[in-house]
Automatic annotation (TrEMBL):
<dbReference type="GO" id="GO:0005930">
    <property type="term" value="C:axoneme"/>
</dbReference>
<dbReference type="GO" id="GO:0003356">
    <property type="term" value="P:regulation of cilium beat frequency"/>
</dbReference>
<keyword id="KW-0966">Cell projection</keyword>
<dbReference type="Pfam" id="PF12018">
    <property type="entry name" value="FAP206"/>
</dbReference>
<keyword id="KW-0963">Cytoplasm</keyword>
<keyword id="KW-0969">Cilium</keyword>
<dbReference type="InterPro" id="IPR021897">
    <property type="entry name" value="FAP206"/>
</dbReference>
<dbReference type="GO" id="GO:0036064">
    <property type="term" value="C:ciliary basal body"/>
</dbReference>
<comment type="similarity">
    <text>Belongs to the CFAP206 family.</text>
</comment>
<keyword id="KW-0970">Cilium biogenesis/degradation</keyword>
<protein>
    <recommendedName>
        <fullName>Cilia- and flagella-associated protein 206</fullName>
    </recommendedName>
</protein>
<keyword id="KW-0206">Cytoskeleton</keyword>
<dbReference type="GO" id="GO:0030030">
    <property type="term" value="P:cell projection organization"/>
</dbReference>
Length: 441
C-alpha cells in the first residue's frame, strides 16, 4: 500500500512540475523552490545569516566583558556579573548549534532538490511523445521522485523548527535585563553623544574657520610638539585598538592631538577620525585602561606601543627592544642570557659523501648480488617486448615439446622414427645390429 501511495504521489508530482496538471493540492513550489531562481532558498539563508551575525555580536560583547575584567578595580563587578556572562554564553551555544543544524539541512535540501529536478528531466526525456510505456521503465522513476519530494519536505520542516528555536532565544535575550551592567562596564558606558558634529572640522571643509592655521603652519607646530613630547601608544589610535580588539591603526594629526599628562610626563595622543577624538575626550581613563588590558591579553603589543613603563614587572629582554649596553649597566638586577648564538668566524668547507656505505653487511650483500649477476646467462633475443614477459629477470624460453600439436587431437601427429642397437659389443658369435622402429602416435 505504501509503494502504491508513493507511486501515485510521484505521478502527481511529475504532472505538477511539468505544468500539465495542478498536482491535486501538492505544494510543490514551496517545497521544491522556484525554478526561475534555480531553486534557491534565499529566505532560509537570510535567517541563517541573521543567526550567525547575532552570535558574532554576542561574542564581541563577551570579549568586552573579559577585557573589562582585567582591570584591577573590576573584580567586585565581575563577580556580580558572572551570571550574565554565563547566560550569554549559553545562548550563544544554543544559537550556534541551531545555525550548524540549519546550514547542514540547507545543503541536504539543495541536494534533494537537484536530484528531484534531474529525475523529472529523465522521466520527460524517456516519455517524449510516446503513448505506450512499460511500467518497469517509468514506475521506479516516479517512486524516486516521491522520495526526493518527501526528503525536501522533511528538511524544510526541520529548518523551520530550528529557526523558531533561534527566535525563541532572541526573545529571551531581548527580555533579559543585565542588572550589573553599570558595575561591569562603568557608569559612562553608552552615555557618550556620538551624534555631536565637529564644528571645527566642518568649518575646515568649507574653508570658513578663521582660527585654523594653514597646512604649513600646522606641520611646523606638530614638529615642535613632537620634539618636546613623545607619542603615547606609538601614535596609534587608542579607539581603534579598543574597538578592533588590538587593531593598530595609525593616527592622523590633522584630526587633532590630545596632550596627555601622567604625573610629571606629557605625551601626545593621535586619532584616526574626529569621532574617535570625541569618544576619547568623553572618558579618556576608560580607554587608557582598555588599551592596557589588551596589552595584558597580547604581550607583543607592549613593545609595539612602547608601553614598557606601564609594565615594569615584565623583563625588557622578552621584548628585544632594549640596547645591550643598557642591560649591562643595569646593576645587580640586570637580565642575563643563558644561551647565545653567533655565526662561525672561520667557516670550513665540509666534504661529506652522502652515498658512503658504512654497513659491512650491506656491502657484502651488494657484492654477492654482483657475483651472481655475473654468472647469469640469457638464451633469448632481446627485443622491444622483452620487458613484458612474465619472467623478465631470467628471460629464457621453455623447452620445446617433442610432438607437434595441430588443430585435431587424433591421428594427426607425424611418425616418430627411433633407432636401437641390438646385441653386445665385442661378442664373437652375434654381431651388433641396428634396428629402426616407427612409432605411429
Amino acid at each position: 500500500m505504501r509503494e502504491l501511495i508513493s507511486l501515485v504521489h510521484g505521478i502527481r508530482l511529475y504532472h505538477s512540475v511539468s505544468a500539465d496538471w495542478p498536482g491535486a493540492g501538492l505544494n510543490t513550489k514551496e517545497v521544491l523552490g522556484d525554478p526561475d531562481k534555480r531553486r534557491r532558498a534565499d529566505d532560509l539563508e537570510d535567517a541563517l545569516q541573521e543567526i550567525n551575525s547575532r552570535c558574532s555580536r554576542l561574542k564581541e560583547y563577551i570579549d568586552y566583558l573579559v577585557v573589562v575584567s582585567l582591570k584591577e578595580e573590576a573584580g567586585e563587578g565581575l563577580a556580580k556579573g558572572t551570571d550574565d556572562i554565563c547566560y550569554i554564553r549559553q545562548c550563544v551555544l544554543y544559537l550556534r548549534s541551531a545555525g550548524d543544524d540549519i546550514e547542514r539541512a540547507i545543503e541536504r535540501l539543495y541536494k534533494s532538490r537537484s536530484h528531484f529536478a534531474e529525475c523529472a528531466r529523465m522521466i520527460g526525456a524517456g516519455m517524449g511523445n510516446r503513448t505506450v510505456i512499460l511500467k518497469a521503465e517509468v514506475y521506479p522513476c516516479f517512486d524516486s521522485l516521491a522520495k526526493y519530494y518527501y526528503s525536501c519536505r522533511d528538511e524544510l520542516r526541520f529548518i523551520n523548527d530550528r529557526i523558531r528555536l533561534a527566535h525563541m532565544v532572541f526573545e529571551q535575550l531581548d527580555a533579559y535585563r543585565f542588572e550589573e551592567k553599570g558595575l561591569l562596564l562603568g557608569s559612562n558606558w553608552g552615555s557618550v553623544d556620538y551624534s555631536m558634529e565637529d564644528k571645527c572640522s566642518t568649518n575646515r571643509a568649507t574653508n570658513t574657520c578663521p582660527e585654523t592655521p594653514s597646512s604649513l603652519e600646522q606641520h611646523s607646530v606638530l614638529e615642535s610638539w613632537q620634539d618636546v613630547c613623545p607619542w603615547w601608544s606609538k601614535g596609534y589610535c587608542p579607539i581603534a585598538i579598543v574597538d578592533g580588539r588590538g587593531l593598530l591603526v595609525p593616527g592622523d594629526p590633522q584630526h587633532g592631538l590630545v596632550l596627555r599628562l601622567d604625573g610629571g610626563t606629557a605625551s601626545l595622543v593621535a586619532f584616526s577620525s574626529p569621532g574617535a577624538v570625541r569618544r576619547f575626550m568623553a572618558d579618556h581613563s576608560k580607554y587608557e585602561e582598555w588599551v592596557k588590558a589588551y596589552c595584558r591579553l597580547m604581550p607583543p603589543l607592549i613593545p609595539l606601543l612602547q608601553m614598557q613603563a606601564e609594565f615594569p614587572h615584565i623583563p625588557g629582554a622578552l621584548f628585544g627592544g632594549e640596547d645591550k649596553s643598557d642591560r649591562q649597566e643595569s646593576g645587580p638586577g640586570r637580565v642575563r642570557l643563558d644561551v647565545a648564538c653567533e655565526t662561525e668566524l672561520h667557516p670550513q668547507q665540509q666534504h661529506v659523501d652522502k652515498e658512503y656505505e658504512w654497513n659491512e653487511w650491506r656491502l657484502r650483500e651488494k657484492l654477492l648480488r654482483a657475483v651472481t649477476l655475473r654468472q647469469k646467462k640469457t638464451r633469448s633475443v632481446q627485443t622491444d617486448y622483452s620487458s613484458f614477459r612474465r619472467d623478465s629477470d631470467v628471460q629464457v624460453y621453455l623447452p620445446k615439446t617433442a610432438t607437434t600439436n595441430t588443430s585435431h587431437d587424433k591421428w594427426t601427429n607425424p611418425v616418430v622414427h627411433k633407432r636401437y642397437l641390438v646385441g653386445m659389443r665385442g661378442a664373437k658369435k652375434d654381431a651388433l645390429k641396428s634396428v629402426d622402429i616407427k612409432f605411429d602416435m
